[in-house]
Design a protein that fits this description.
Shape: globular
Distance between the termini: 29 Å
Largest sheet: 2 strands, antiparallel
Order of helices and strands: HEEH
Strand content: 15-25%
Helix content: 40-55%
Radius of gyration: 14 Å
Oligomer: single chain
Length: 67
């Protein structure tokens, strides 16, 4: 069985689906969409911030989020 890796799977989706919506969030009474490309950039930014904070590449971290 191949090993599942969430980051690889998200990167595949970014390449495949780019500008398609990945999620919609209601703010100020309006629904706003985020696309796969924006999600990928946010994921990369989060990874860079963790590394700047002293985490090593490949080290596990816990992420707590509303959704």
């Amino acid at each position: 069985m191949p090993q599942f890796h969430l980051v690889r799977r998200i990167r595949e989706r970014v390449s495949e689906l780019g500008d398609r919506a990945v999620q919609r969030v209601q703010r100020d009474g309006q629904w706003r969409a985020t696309n796969w490309r924006t999600l990928g950039r946010a994921m990369d930014g989060c990874a860079r911030a963790l590394i700047r904070g002293g985490h090593q590449p490949g080290e596990m971290v816990g992420v707590y989020a509303r959704n």
